[in-house]
């Protein structure tokens, strides 16, 4: 008869333990509520708050208006509703963060697993990682955008072209931290008993990686992914703030900052609202990452 205490915990109980530890982190709960509210607002807000269509003459009369009941966040230099543009900009900024993070996490995990599992690939892949780490990120992104923006825009359009170029450029220059984290985990995991046992019975490397290595690096990858979203949003905001991001009629929070810069002294709210949205998003994502790191660490969860 098997002792009940020796049976492995069920996945449901593990998820409950993870949530129990995560919920004790007040900052992580605050970040989850704030980020969830922002995502909900940018997804359904443009359908609930639809500004009235104005003629050119009416829009010019309403330009640079302060907050009011008709325009809760005021209007911009062309008479457009800032609340509506903030909601649309949030969609793009969050989408850039998520897609760029996905590219960085997938590529970084792939490089990290290859470097950690196959000894002959470790040195060249880590030297490649060091080379990317040595490159100045913002100047490199500026060069990539300036070289390829017009070419890609001519093939797939200015909006989709800018989105594709920016998320790819950010993702392909942000994978190095994930690669180092995954490599360290794989170096430890490949010496575990269950991996050595799988090798001894003739299991192929791809099967060992998919069945035994990859599932056990999910936790650090999830933490890196949350932090990667914040970094991608900040990087896109910097590019848009420098005028090399999305086109003017395709709003992002960084682009709104850039547009409001010349009006900052007269209309400071033009930069306060997008700056506040970026700050809250990055802060909440970082808090969520801290909470996930503690919740997924069995040494802390078992206390």
Automatic annotation (TrEMBL):
It is found in: Cell membrane. CDD domains: TM_PBP2 (cd06261). The chain crosses the membrane at residues 28-49, 92-118, 130-148, 160-182, 213-234, 271-289. It is a multi-pass membrane protein. Keywords: Cell membrane, Membrane, Transmembrane, Transmembrane helix, Transport. Gene3D superfamilies: MetI-like. Pfam families: BPD_transp_1, OppC_N. It comes from the Bacteria. The keyword Nucleotide-binding does not apply. Residues 90-289 form the ABC transmembrane type-1 domain. Its main location: membrane. SUPFAM superfamilies: MetI-like. PROSITE patterns: ABC_TM1. PANTHER family: ABC TRANSPORTER, OLIGOPEPTIDE TRANSPORT SYSTEM PERMEASE PROTEIN APPC. Belongs to the binding-protein-dependent transport system permease family. This is ABC transporter permease. It comes from Rhodobacter calidifons.
């Amino acid at each position: 008869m098997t002792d009940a205490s020796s049976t492995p915990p069920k996945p449901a109980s593990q998820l409950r333990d993870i949530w129990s530890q995560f919920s004790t982190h007040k900052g992580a709960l605050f970040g989850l509520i704030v980020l969830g509210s922002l995502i909900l607002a940018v997804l359904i807000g443009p359908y609930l708050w639809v500004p009235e269509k104005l003629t050119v003459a009416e829009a010019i009369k309403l330009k640079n208006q302060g907050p009011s009941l008709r325009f809760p966040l005021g209007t911009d230099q062309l008479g457009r509703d800032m609340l509506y543009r903030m909601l649309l900009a949030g969609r793009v900024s969050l989408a850039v963060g998520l897609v760029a993070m996905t590219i960085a996490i997938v590529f970084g995990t792939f490089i990290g697993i290859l470097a950690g599992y196959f000894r002959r690939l470790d040195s060249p892949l880590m030297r490649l990682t060091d080379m990317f780490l040595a490159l100045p990120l913002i100047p490199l992104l500026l060069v990539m955008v300036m070289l390829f923006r017009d070419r890609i825009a001519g093939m797939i359009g200015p909006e989709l072209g800018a989105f594709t170029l920016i998320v790819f450029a950010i993702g392909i220059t942000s994978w190095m931290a994930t690669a180092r984290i995954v490599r360290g985990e794989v170096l430890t995991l490949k010496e575990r008993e269950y991996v050595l046992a799988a090798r001894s019975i003739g299991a192929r490397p791809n099967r060992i990686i998919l069945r035994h290595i990859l599932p056990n690096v999910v936790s650090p990858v999830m933490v890196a992914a949350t932090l990667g979203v914040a970094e991608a949003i900040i990087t896109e905001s910097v590019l848009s703030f420098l005028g090399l991001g999305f086109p003017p009629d395709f709003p992002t929070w960084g682009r709104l900052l850039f547009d409001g810069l010349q009006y900052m002294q007269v209309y400071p709210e033009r930069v306060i609202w997008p700056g506040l949205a970026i700050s809250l998003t990055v802060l909440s994502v970082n808090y969520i990452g801290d909470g996930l790191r503690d919740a997924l660490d069995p040494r802390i969860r078992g206390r």
